[in-house]
Design a protein that fits this description.
alpha/beta; methyltransferase; transferase; 4-stranded mixed β-sheet; Nucleosomal histone H3-Lys79 methylase; 32% helix; EC 2.1.1.354; two-stranded parallel ribbon
Length: 154
Amino acid sequence: AGCEGHGIEIMEIPARLAKRQAHEFKARMRLYNVRTNKLEIIHGDFLENPEIHSVLRQASVVLVNNYAFDSKLNQSLMQLFLDLEDGTQIISLRPFVPLDFKLSTRNAGSPESILRVKCYPYWSDCVSWTNNGGEYYIHTVDRSQLQRFFEQLP
């Protein structure tokens, strides 16, 4: 409640299903007399869609199901994360940043340098695509550690 929701899906059938779910959600909220804000589902490519880029700059939470993404696609996504405000949280199924990431002069210019990450478990039967448990990751945009790093350089 009190937030906007924006989603983008590149595959036609999942995009169509997401639009149906959004329609059903809005109908149920009207039935329950609960006011909702904007909810938008787009069939498209998040790397190419300028509207999504604009939405990301305003987001406080970003959910990315990157379970099947290759490293190139994850790196492209991280470039988009550079526009996120400090405090924005990115929830994903694969980490964008290694859990043992250490800031150094070699990687201080990388997108990883603005993200803190924590790993959390999910248990069996908690997600729709598998009965198995697993892990998810919450990344928080935090440029303060990068700022402190540069202030300490000679």
